[in-house]
């Protein structure tokens, strides 16, 4: 063995014991089973691997090491007597293993270790491990062939053979050196290493090699079985722990989902509580509520969010408001002039600059190209607003001392200017040089009074002193002549669009309605009792002439239904303003009501005054509405949309309207109607043909701007409703007095009558536009209401010329009024006369099965429509209530939303667009459109409201980090 301080290229041999500190009973020094002698440079790695193999042989991993091997100098004391330390280690060893190699043969330390062993220990306990060089045994000479052997020291081996004759025990480990050179290490369980190690371990332990290897293999099998069992147990524990972990994660996820859903519902409730006072913040809360969790409350609130008023911050306005004739432009007067707003976006388009005066009034000309504004100095300015983004001053005049009211006289180029004491007329044909053409006598009082011009321009009403109104005729030449003066409140005046009614208001909130059809003899029709008092209430008529809005000092706005002027009915009360409205104005289509009030933040120039805010309210007649758009036409069929969803057809009047890709719906073409009550028009699935009822006919609408009438059937047929089958080859025509007939319409120019659904007919509600027949998707199945409405029949139409009734659905204590099927055609939804929606499984039409019901409507169901891509159902009842259900589980329909639509009682149609992005609801004279695509609604809410502030966030979401939803 080489020592620790070799004089040449050698270093100390390494030694380690499985337990070098182990003690024997006969002394305190450690004892070793084997002493390995080797040359440091050549045999160190081989000795290391061989030592590990000896120490691990014949023992499982859980038992202590049995062999103790000396292979290192680290446990020798650092002393100058290194040779003595080595000899003492040899003396405590039972076996000597010599790593045979040419370098070992030349090492004086290896020679000295062999010499010491021969002199002091049995020579039979020397083992040879051949690691390099040549080693050859001569059997005849019983000695090594020294002519060929260079791996052993010759002199020391002859001494060994002299005391222990015969071939010593040795193994060839040269392969081990090659493996170490290639791979760096050899596994201790390598079969070759086990066999070679066994050659040495067997004599050391006094056992046969076969017994030793067998014992080792048995221990290895035991170990493997134990390891396998341990792995199985650990795997089972891991699987169990994983399952428990996944369960715990799922429970945490469920808990988190529930918490988010609860927070979402809370935000929806918070938004509802502030939607009138703080609609912008309510919008932000609704967006965040949906972002947290798609609860039915959040979805419903989004679908109904169109009823939230929009707030326009205009600065220190005076309160004067006017809509342009097309409704897209709103003029709001302020201290410095007039701001023009785009009503679609709510954004300021431009500001009319001028001298800093107090603007009192604004008005648009009939064509919308000119705007007049009057200020407190009496100056009138005329503006060209044909390009609203770049208004141009045309001219100005100062005919009076205070222009409190301005109004264009119908389509005439005349402007009525009211001063509070008199009215004057300006001829604005040459707007560069407006000139006075006439005026009214001065009133006895200098108090401010109203002025209004008749829609046709031939009549002017103006205040004429305390509680008096003067009616004057306006001649084409611009002269005013007094017709009649009568006692009436005169603070605010407004003619109805028809001109037959004049609304007047005065002190103590009195509002009177006067019939001025004969202006020489006006008749008081009624006095409105405003629910909230007001000193000088402002008022405005809607375009339908049946709706009036009045303001009150508490900031509320009362809508009135004047369908019967003798018995006006209160409609909705709009709340949100905190101070009395200064002005009210309806858009030309009557769908938007604008109001202004000085209830904004304190003004920068005077903290005692407040900025004015303008609110835009969605209304439908005397009620609030959540619809996003409106058509001035009504009566929809069950299939009013073209397949691309961009075009819709109405039946009263018959017309095609573009509703997609345009800011506002626009008429494309007019269709002649042969029924004064309106027509039923339905689009074919390919969008190229319109079928019409009463009488039955067809239109080519490949170009919807230029529809062309086709040659239709010559039979006398007057169907109330027409409905296409899914593939467009069949048409069901329902007549009020006869059964439903099927038509082959593959060639619209030559439709062919097929079979009839005997006993079917118009149900109790179909006369109002309901469709008593529904195709079951692409199945050869159709449902039709029995003529008396008491049942729904299912028909097999695989042979449409001979339809066969397969099953029936009978409703208890109610009649069937509306039908629709799910998109897969396996569920039929029936609306009845008691307001109940029932769902039926018609997978087997011979045995339809009731699966669920919802009774949320208070009146009979007149229309049902199924969403084309989602599990959503829409229904409308006789009172105009529009409800949406989630029918993902037909057994338990869940109401999602109640859409505000003004409570129309004459609903005539209900339909989803083909992509489901719109829902349309019609009356006899109008059609409202709602967006049902949530992404579109979210974008609109974000565009209509400023981002939620950090302080607002902390108020409503204190436990969540600030993360505004519209960032």
UniProtKB/TrEMBL annotation:
<dbReference type="Pfam" id="PF00400">
    <property type="entry name" value="WD40"/>
</dbReference>
<keyword id="KW-0472">Membrane</keyword>
<feature type="compositionally biased region" description="Basic and acidic residues">
    <location>
        <begin position="703"/>
        <end position="717"/>
    </location>
</feature>
<dbReference type="InterPro" id="IPR036322">
    <property type="entry name" value="WD40_repeat_dom_sf"/>
</dbReference>
<dbReference type="InterPro" id="IPR000157">
    <property type="entry name" value="TIR_dom"/>
</dbReference>
<feature type="region of interest" description="Disordered">
    <location>
        <begin position="1"/>
        <end position="28"/>
    </location>
</feature>
<feature type="repeat" description="WD">
    <location>
        <begin position="352"/>
        <end position="393"/>
    </location>
</feature>
<dbReference type="Pfam" id="PF13676">
    <property type="entry name" value="TIR_2"/>
</dbReference>
<feature type="transmembrane region" description="Helical">
    <location>
        <begin position="226"/>
        <end position="248"/>
    </location>
</feature>
<feature type="region of interest" description="Disordered">
    <location>
        <begin position="839"/>
        <end position="860"/>
    </location>
</feature>
<keyword id="KW-0853">WD repeat</keyword>
<feature type="region of interest" description="Disordered">
    <location>
        <begin position="562"/>
        <end position="587"/>
    </location>
</feature>
<keyword id="KW-1133">Transmembrane helix</keyword>
<protein>
    <recommendedName>
        <fullName>TIR domain-containing protein</fullName>
    </recommendedName>
</protein>
<feature type="repeat" description="WD">
    <location>
        <begin position="574"/>
        <end position="600"/>
    </location>
</feature>
<feature type="repeat" description="WD">
    <location>
        <begin position="539"/>
        <end position="563"/>
    </location>
</feature>
<feature type="domain" description="TIR">
    <location>
        <begin position="34"/>
        <end position="147"/>
    </location>
</feature>
<feature type="repeat" description="WD">
    <location>
        <begin position="492"/>
        <end position="516"/>
    </location>
</feature>
<keyword id="KW-0812">Transmembrane</keyword>
<keyword id="KW-0677">Repeat</keyword>
<dbReference type="InterPro" id="IPR001680">
    <property type="entry name" value="WD40_rpt"/>
</dbReference>
<dbReference type="InterPro" id="IPR019775">
    <property type="entry name" value="WD40_repeat_CS"/>
</dbReference>
<feature type="region of interest" description="Disordered">
    <location>
        <begin position="623"/>
        <end position="642"/>
    </location>
</feature>
<dbReference type="InterPro" id="IPR035897">
    <property type="entry name" value="Toll_tir_struct_dom_sf"/>
</dbReference>
<feature type="region of interest" description="Disordered">
    <location>
        <begin position="694"/>
        <end position="720"/>
    </location>
</feature>
<dbReference type="InterPro" id="IPR015943">
    <property type="entry name" value="WD40/YVTN_repeat-like_dom_sf"/>
</dbReference>
């Amino acid at each position: 063995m080489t020592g620790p301080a070799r004089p040449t290229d050698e270093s100390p041999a390494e030694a380690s014991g499985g337990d070098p500190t182990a003690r024997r009973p006969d002394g305190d020094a450690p004892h070793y089973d084997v002493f390995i002698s080797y040359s440091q440079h050549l045999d160190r790695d081989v000795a290391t691997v061989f030592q590990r193999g000896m120490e691990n042989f014949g023992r499982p991993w859980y038992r202590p090491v049995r062999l103790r091997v000396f292979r290192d100098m680290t446990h020798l004391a650092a002393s100058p007597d290194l040779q003595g330390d080595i000899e003492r280690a040899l003396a405590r060893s039972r076996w000597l293993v010599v790593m045979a190699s040419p370098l070992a043969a030349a090492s004086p330390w290896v020679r000295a270790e062999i010499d010491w062993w021969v002199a002091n220990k049995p020579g039979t306990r020397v083992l040879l491990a051949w690691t390099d060089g040549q080693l050859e045994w001569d059997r005849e000479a019983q000695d090594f062939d020294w002519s060929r052997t260079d791996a052993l020291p010759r002199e020391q081996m002859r001494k060994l053979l002299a005391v222990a004759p015969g071939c010593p025990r040795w193994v060839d480990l040269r392969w081990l050196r090659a493996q170490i050179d290639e791979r760096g290490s050899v596994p201790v369980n390598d079969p070759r290493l086990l066999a070679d190690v066994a050659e040495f371990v067997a004599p050391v332990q006094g056992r046969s090699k076969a017994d030793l290897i067998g014992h080792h293999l048995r221990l290895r099998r035991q170990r493997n079985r134990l390891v396998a069992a341990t792995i199985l147990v650990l795997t089972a524990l891991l699987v169990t722990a994983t399952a428990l972990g996944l369960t715990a994660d799922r429970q945490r996820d469920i808990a988190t989902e529930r918490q988010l859903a609860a927070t979402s519902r809370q935000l929806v409730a918070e938004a509802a509580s502030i939607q009138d006072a703080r609609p912008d913040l309510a919008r932000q809360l609704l967006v965040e509520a949906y972002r947290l969790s798609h609860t039915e409350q959040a979805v419903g609130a989004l679908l109904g969010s169109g009823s939230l008023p929009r707030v326009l911050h205009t600065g220190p306005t005076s309160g004067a408001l006017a809509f342009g004739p097309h409704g897209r432009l709103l003029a709001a007067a302020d201290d410095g002039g007039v701001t023009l707003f785009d009503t679609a976006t709510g954004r300021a388009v431009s500001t009319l600059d001028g001298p800093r005066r107090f603007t009192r009034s604004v008005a648009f000309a009939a064509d919308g190209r000119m705007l007049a504004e009057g200020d407190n100095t009496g100056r009138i300015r005329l503006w060209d607003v044909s390009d609203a983004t770049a208004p141009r001053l045309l001219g100005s005049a100062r005919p009076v001392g205070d222009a409190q009211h301005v109004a264009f006289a119908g389509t005439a180029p005349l402007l009525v200017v009211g001063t509070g004491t008199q009215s004057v007329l300006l001829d604005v044909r040459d707007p560069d040089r407006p000139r006075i053409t006439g005026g009214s006598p001065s009133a006895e009082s200098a108090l401010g009074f109203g002025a209004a011009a008749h829609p046709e321009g031939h009549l002017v009403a103006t205040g004429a002193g305390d509680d008096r109104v003067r009616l004057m005729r306006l001649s084409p030449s611009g002269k005013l002549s007094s017709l009649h003066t009568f006692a009436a409140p005169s603070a605010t005046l407004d003619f109805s669009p028809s001109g037959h009614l004049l609304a007047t208001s005065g002190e103590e909130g009195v509002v009177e309605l006067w019939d001025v059809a004969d202006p020489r003899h006006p008749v008081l029709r009624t006095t409105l009792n405003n629910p909230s008092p007001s000193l000088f209430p402002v008022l405005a008529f809607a375009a339908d002439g049946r709706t009036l809005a009045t303001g009150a000092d508490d900031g509320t706005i009362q809508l009135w239904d004047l369908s019967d002027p003798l018995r006006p009915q209160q409609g909705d009360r709009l709340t949100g303003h905190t101070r009395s409205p200064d002005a009210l104005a309806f858009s030309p289509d009557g769908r938007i009501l604008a109001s202004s009030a000085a209830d904004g933040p304190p003004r920068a120039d005077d903290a005692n005054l407040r900025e004015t805010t303008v609110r835009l309210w969605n209304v439908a007649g005397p009620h609030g509405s959540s619809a996003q758009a409106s058509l001035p036409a009504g009566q929809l069929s069950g299939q009013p949309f073209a397949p691309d969803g961009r075009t819709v057809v109405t039946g009263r009047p018959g017309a095609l309207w573009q509703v997609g890709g345009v800011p506002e719906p626009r008429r494309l073409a007019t269709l002649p109607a042969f029924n004064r009550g309106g027509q039923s028009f339905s689009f074919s699935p390919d969008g190229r043909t319109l079928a019409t009822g009463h009488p039955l006919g067809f239109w080519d609408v490949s170009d919807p701007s230029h529809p062309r009438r086709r040659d239709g059937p010559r039979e006398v047929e007057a169907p109330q409703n027409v409905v296409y089958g899914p593939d467009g080859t069949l048409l069901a025509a329902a007549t009020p007095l006869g059964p439903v007939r099927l038509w082959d319409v593959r060639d619209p120019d030559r439709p062919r009558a097929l079979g009839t659904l005997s006993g079917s007919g118009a149900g109790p509600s179909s006369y109002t536009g309901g469709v008593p027949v529904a195709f079951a998707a692409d199945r050869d199945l159709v449902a039709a209401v029995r003529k008396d409405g008491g049942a729904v029949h299912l028909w097999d139409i695989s042979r449409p010329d001979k339809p066969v009734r397969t099953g029936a659905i009978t409703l208890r204590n109610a009649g069937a009024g509306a039908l629709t099927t799910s998109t897969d055609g396996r569920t039929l939804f029936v609306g009845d006369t008691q307001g109940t929606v029932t769902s039926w499984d018609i997978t087997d039409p011979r045995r339809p099965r009731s699966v669920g019901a919802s009774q949320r409507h208070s009146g009979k169901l007149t229309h049902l429509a199924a969403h084309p891509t989602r599990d959503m159902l829409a229904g409308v009842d006789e009172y105009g209530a529009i409800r949406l259900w989630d029918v993902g589980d037909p057994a338990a329909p869940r109401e999602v939303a109640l859409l505000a639509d003004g409570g129309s009682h004459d609903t005539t149609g209900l339909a989803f667009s083909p992509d489901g992005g719109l829902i349309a609801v019609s009356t006899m004279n109008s059609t409202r459109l709602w967006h049902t695509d949530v992404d579109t609604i979210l974008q609109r809410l974000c565009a209509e409201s400023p981002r939620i502030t950090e302080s607002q966030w902390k108020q409503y979401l204190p436990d969540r980090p600030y993360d505004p939803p519209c960032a």
